[in-house]
Design brief:
The protein is of the alpha/beta class and about 350 residues long. It folds into two domains: about 190 residues, Rossmann fold; about 150 residues, Rossmann fold (3-Layer(aba) Sandwich), CATH 3.40.50.11530. It is built from twelve helices and eleven strands. β1, α1 and β2 form a beta-alpha-beta unit. The protein is elongated and about 75 Å long. About 40% of the residues are buried. It comes from Streptomyces coeruleorubidus. This is Toll/interleukin-1 receptor domain-containing protein. Keywords: Receptor.
């Protein structure tokens, strides 16, 4: 039985977000089809592992970005599906094959001869067009309307693509194929299967590659915004974990079962190499004890720990780091933390990660 669709993504891409998008797309396609859907993920840099899947799938979903176009493995997988598309007689072959669904993962200019991932709404200024799925996840969250609108439209494209799926092929029948990307790979050929991964495509570093990973405790407030801020903090935590950083976050602990929260906060605050304070309106109110009684006591407790350290440790600002999403900023820094570096995320994320790793090494 043919696979309904595969999701092709770059080896250097954010694997956690790609996997979440893939699962959400399966769910959305399942709702539309009214049946169980068979799907697989094809990560670049896997050598010939993906070839049987690409040769069999009805629809090829590509998470397009600059790192995708730079990935030889993705170029090889694209070439296999392109070969299948050209098995359809020219008179029946659409110029924009519905069975190849191009997702704007991150806005990027495609290589010559490769089509641009289209916008969904027709408006080049909407979130999907300007940020791509990855940008929406990072900035608006996995629960945002923009994210789910995009997933639903992409699911509709997958369903339409299944109506025009190209002929299946066996791996043994594939000829030598030209790779459409990355740049300079046009003369390379996709030919016999080989057990080795594609050389030159670095695998993403996994957290387990580091014997001593830095530990970060994230202190933040649950804003009254329908969990938008909470979701963005959770996405940030996943991004840090992808970079090999251990993160202590309440939502992760909550999934493990009941907690004694005061003990949990105190334990992980003390164990962490760094405390990342994510400033926001509610955080400032609660940290400064200006919130109504009984509301946001967790932030108030953490803020008291931070204030005690601030008073006792001269270079406290090297462990207690301040972060903010663009919509908040300096105006929401608690008074006792004012005057030190404020990292705006995700603009300053590389600098934040570099600092954490340099100080913990």
């Amino acid at each position: 039985m043919a696979i309904d669709f595969i999701t092709s993504f770059a080896a250097e891409d954010h694997g956690t977000y790609a996997e979440r998008f893939h699962r959400d797309l399966i769910e959305a396609v399942t709702r539309r089809k009214g049946r169980t859907v068979s799907a697989a993920m094809c990560r670049g840099g896997q050598g010939d592992t993906n070839r049987p899947l690409v040769a069999d799938a009805q629809v090829f979903v590509a998470l397009c970005s600059q790192v995708y176009y730079d990935d030889r493995g993705c170029g090889a997988d694209w070439a296999v599906f392109e070969h299948r598309l050209h098995l359809v007689p020219p008179q029946f072959r659409p110029s924009d094959p519905p069975a190849r669904v191009l997702v704007r993962w991150q806005p990027a200019k495609p290589p010559s001869g490769v089509p641009l991932a289209p916008v969904l709404s027709g408006e080049i200024t909407d979130s999907y067009a300007s940020k791509g799925i990855y940008g929406i996840i990072c900035q608006e969250g996995l629960r945002s309307q923009a994210y789910w609108d995009a997933v639903d439209e992409i699911a509709a494209a997958v369903c339409a693509g299944q109506e025009c799926s190209p002929p299946e092929v066996s791996v043994g029948e594939l000829p030598a194929l030209s790779m459409p990307f990355p740049r300079g790979a046009g003369d390379a050929r996709v030919c016999r299967p080989s057990p080795a991964a594609q050389p030159g495509v670095p695998r993403p570093r996994k957290p387990t590659d580091d014997a001593e990973r830095p530990r970060v405790f994230i202190s933040y407030a649950h804003e009254e915004d329908g969990d938008v801020h909470k979701g963005k903090v959770a996405a940030l935590a996943e991004r840090l974990r992808e970079e090999g950083i251990d993160v202590f976050l309440d939502t992760s602990a909550h999934r493990k079962g009941p907690q004694h929260w005061a003990r949990w906060m105190h334990k992980h605050y003390k164990e962490a190499d760094f405390v990342l304070v994510m400033v926001s309106p509610a955080y400032k109110r609660r940290a400064e004890h200006e919130e109504e009684p009984g509301k946001g006591d967790g932030v108030a407790y953490e803020a008291d720990l931070i204030l005690s350290e601030r008073m006792a440790v001269r270079r406290w600002y090297e462990r207690i780091l301040l972060g903010s999403f663009p919509e908040h900023g300096k105006a929401y820094v608690p008074f006792f933390l004012d005057g030190v570096t404020l990292y705006t995320l995700y603009q300053d994320l590389p600098e934040l990660i570099d600092f954490i790793k340099s100080k913990s090494s």
